């Protein structure tokens, strides 16, 4: 998870998942996901594991956020853009209660942990 910088206009200091916009140069959604994770965290996505429910919100335009669960290459340093984010952490489900985030993000993260448990049971 990454913490939005205090200077961000929308949701300052809120914890969130890495994300961004699909760009014209993105050939696939997977490309957009891997690019955004790399840009925001310096992490290389190894695999897109699953998808959790989208979020929608109104601003000057209607925004839709698609949410994916990924695995990243082990042993990499997290590198944040300090203009956008001030901190990072690998969070467990038990950590969520103490972190400031939007209610919608909290729901998506709970879904993430449910998906992980389901996949763990399937894999063994």
Structure, described:
- With 124 residues, the protein is an alpha+beta fold.
- 27% of the residues lie in helices and 27% in strands.
- The strands form two sheets. A three-stranded antiparallel beta sheet has the order 2-1-5, with no helix packed on it. A two-stranded antiparallel ribbon has the order 3-4.
- A hairpin with a 3-residue loop joins β3 (45-58) and β4 (62-72).
- The chain is globular.
- The protein starts with a strand and ends with a helix.
- The model has no long low-confidence stretch (mean pLDDT 90).
What share of the residues does DSSP label as strand, in percent? 25-35%
Order of helices and strands: EEHEEEH
Helix count, DSSP H or I runs of 4 or more residues: 2
Number of strands: 5
Question: What is the overall pLDDT average?
Answer: 90
**How would a crystallographer describe the biggest sheet?**
3 strands, antiparallel
- Percent helix: 25-40%
- Principal-axis shape: globular
Structural class computed from helices and strand pairing: alpha+beta
What labels would you give this structure?
single chain; 124 residues; alpha+beta; 3-stranded antiparallel beta sheet; 2 helices; 27% strand
Outline:
This protein has 124 residues and is α+β, with helices and mostly antiparallel strands. It has helices at residues 29-41, 103-123; strands at 2-4, 15-16, 45-58, 62-72, 85-88. It is globular, with a radius of gyration of 14 Å.
């Amino acid at each position: 998870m990454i913490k939005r910088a205090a200077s961000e206009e929308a949701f300052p200091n809120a914890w969130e998942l890495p994300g961004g916009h699909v760009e014209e140069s993105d050939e696939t959604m997977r490309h957009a996901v891997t690019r955004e994770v790399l840009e925001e965290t310096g992490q290389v996505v190894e695999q897109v594991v699953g998808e959790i429910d989208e979020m929608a919100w109104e601003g000057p335009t209607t925004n839709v956020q698609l949410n994916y669960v990924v695995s990243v290459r082990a042993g990499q340093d997290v590198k944040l853009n300090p203009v956008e984010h001030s901190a990072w952490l690998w969070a467990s489900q038990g950590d969520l209660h103490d972190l400031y985030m939007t209610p919608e993000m909290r729901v998506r993260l709970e879904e993430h942990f449910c998906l992980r448990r389901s996949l763990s049971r399937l894999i063994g």
